[in-house]
Amino acid sequence: MEEYNKQQRSIWGKWWVPIRKWFYPAWLLYETSIRFYDYGQSVHHYFIGQQDAIASYIGKIGVQVLDVFCSVATFAICTIFLTVPACFVLYKFFKTENLTGTPFEEKMKTIF
Fold first, then answer.
1. Spatial contact of 27 and 35, defined as CB atoms under 8 Å apart
2. Higher pLDDT, 77 or 13
3. CA–CA gap between residue 57 and residue 62 (Å, rounded)
4. What Cα–Cα distance (Å) separates residue 69 from each residue in 17, 18, 53, 62?
5. Is pLDDT above 80 for 1?
6. In this predicted structure, what is the pLDDT of residue 69?
7. pLDDT in tens, 58-94
8. Spatial distance between the Cα atoms of 112 and 108, rounded to a whole number of angstroms
9. Whole-model pTM?
10. Are 17 and 97 in contact (CB under 8 A)?
């Protein structure tokens, strides 16, 4: 009876287990970086569209400086406060054998 109670191995095989602790955080970093780059571009397009209205207050050079600063700040803030902690948590999740001590975690790790 106890032989049926063992946890199954990953569906991807034994070779996948050491790789997944780096693959999933790297994949998350890539996907969120692409999304946050799009957010930065959206901020840039907003300032380009509103350039004439804002230029009367701070000038054309000021609008361009504000555009670059806000676009880079949007990307940096999203990456630092969302992507880096999420990648670290995902890495720790797959590195530690049984992080939460729940059966759900064991089932999820065998699938992924």
1. no
2. 77
3. 9
4. 41, 40, 18, 10
5. no
6. 93
7. 888 888 899 999 999 999 998 888 888 888 888 888 7
8. 6
9. 0.64
10. no
Give the 3-state secondary structure of the chain.
CHHHHCCCCCCCCCCHHHHHHHHHHHHHHHHHHHHHHHHHHHHHHHHHHCHHHHHHHHHHHHHHHHHHHHHHHHHHHHHHHHHHHHHHHHHHHHHCCCCCCCHHHHHHHHHC
CA distance 81 to 78: 6
CA distance 76 to 87: 15
Q: Tell me what the pLDDT averaged over the chain comes to.
A: 82
**Tokens (6 digits) for 110:** 């065998």
Amino acid at 11: I
Give φ, ψ of 86 to 5 degrees. -65, -40
